[in-house]
Specification:
Layout lengths: L8 H6 L4 E6 L5 E6 L2 E3 L2 E7 L3 H5 L5 E8 L2 E16 L3 H13 L13 E14 L1
Antiparallel strand pairs: 1-2, 1-5, 3-4, 4-7, 5-6, 6-7
């Protein structure tokens, strides 16, 4: 069922809702990881470190899906299917710090590792479906 994403604006922009990000492995099998995310200019953004499985699976043009569950009501959720439309290291350190502020209430991302290179993946939504 097609859904108006604005009905779920609270999940996309306000609440500390985690997303389960589904990517495809090189052999075509699915891989799912819980992620922090935000929305900017209609695109969803996730941040990870170079070398991680999801980072290896996401290139510009890759198809992905996110399932976002309402932290206040497990029976309300939004599914987003889309395409990775932009990948950049520019601003990625500041972005992970802003996500740490949203999800942890901390000004700096506390799990940074020495030598870690952060990357932002912008996802252009193609379809939304939701419940609740």
């Amino acid at each position: 069922m097609a859904t108006d994403p604005e009905k779920y604006r609270d999940l996309l922009e306000e609440k500390k809702a985690f997303a389960s990000l589904a990517t495809l492995m090189p052999d075509g099998s699915p891989q799912v990881t819980p992620v922090w995310f935000d929305r900017k200019d209609g695109k969803l953004r996730v941040n990870t470190a170079r070398g991680r499985v999801k980072a290896r699976n996401m290139k510009e043009g890759s198809h992905v899906a996110l399932s976002i569950m309402d932290p206040d009501n497990a029976y309300r959720h939004l599914q987003v299917r889309g395409t990775v439309s932009h990948v950049t290291e520019d601003g990625a350190d500041a972005h992970i710090d802003s996500l740490a502020k949203k999800y942890l209430g901390q000004d700096k991302y506390p799990f940074r590792q020495p030598g870690e290179v952060r990357v932002i993946y912008e996802i252009t939504p193609k379809s939304f479906s939701g419940m609740g």
